[in-house]
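Hi Y.,

Following your request, here is the sequence exactly as I used it, all 420 residues.
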Amino acid sequence: MPRQALVTGLGFITPIGNTRAAVAQSLREGRHGIETVEFLGNPHLSIKVVGTIKEFVAHTPNWRDWRFPASYDIPKEALRGLSPHGLFALCAIEQALGDAQLTAADIGDGATGLYCASAGSTLLAHHHLTRLLESRGERCGPLGVVSSIAGTLNFNLAAHYGIRGAVGGFVAACASSSHALGCALDDIRLGRQKRMIIVGAEEATAESILPFAAMRALSTNPDPATASRPFDAGRDGFVGSGGAVALIIEEAEFAQQRGARIYAEFAGWGQAADGYNIAISHPQGTGLVDAINRALQDTRIDSGQIDYINAHATSTPAGDRSEALALQTVFTAAGHTPPISSTKGLTGHPLSMAGVMEAAFCSLAIKDGFIPGNAHLRDIDEVCRGLNLPRETLPTPPRTVLSTSSGFGGSNVGLVFRRV
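Below is the corresponding structure, written out as tokens. Let me know if you'd prefer a different format.
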């Protein structure tokens, strides 16, 4: 029999809370974390809102200017090589380790691996490249590369924690951390690792968010309470956000022997590509259909056994439409109408960390016995006909949950979690 993987630790630095309890309360109450901002001091920009990270100030290239809760004791040597989103990731891992009743000493024996997902720090990349160009190649910070490129999380975090197991970074746009989760599950199943830490993190800065405005992907709605509204007929784009979420999975026997608290079983996954367009999902959601079906096959269940779907739906007109059609193909056409919601109505869209964030939300929903509603959904898009889209949180304990992710290039992932 394949080895089982269990979720044993969660850590959150998100727009809707920086602790497990705060996040669970926000999900239950439908409390969003989106706020009004003025990027680059320019009131004329059309982008007015973002999912903000509270209790942290990390908007400059200089780590000496950063502020974070005093409960995190981070050595200066570690801070020097971090990006802002690396700071978020380290704090999320600290939380997850505490939640799983693990110490740094427990994860340095080679049985624990670390998979990370981020797009790197555009803030620091811009800073260091500007210095390099202005000095005509004579000035650049010695840690400029390792603090800014896409592998910055795995470089810094593996060194900080002394990880000697599998370490790697995943870059598949908004599906990145879902790919990291799936490959981590495979490592557990194959016996390569006993424990995996998966973390995704992003920065909510002008450098990381505003480029999407040129693609017309961002909402220009200035109202924080309605700008992010997946599946709504009036949606006009996603709301950028950032933060970090860490999730720990362990081989079942290994976890049970140490008496670990269990949130859920990470039961299966599947992936598939659209092969269609560099930026837009296939209009009929064909790649997502394949990814979901492969996840169900991997878990050895059928679509009728899914009790809740946490949809990727980012609030873009094309993306939500494609996903709605995919879900209709797999579920509605087979006579199944599980509740579906996109928690991005609360958080905004944190890009590559979305998959692990929503996997952690699913784990909370299974453990605590509720189904998040669709925040800000008022006028359901006609294309969503046949989908069960509750507006409010349901006090229904889901047993088996599907989480979906999609990214640029038509990269699609389905993840299945279930109650133990």
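The chain has one domain: 5-418.

Thanks again,
Q.
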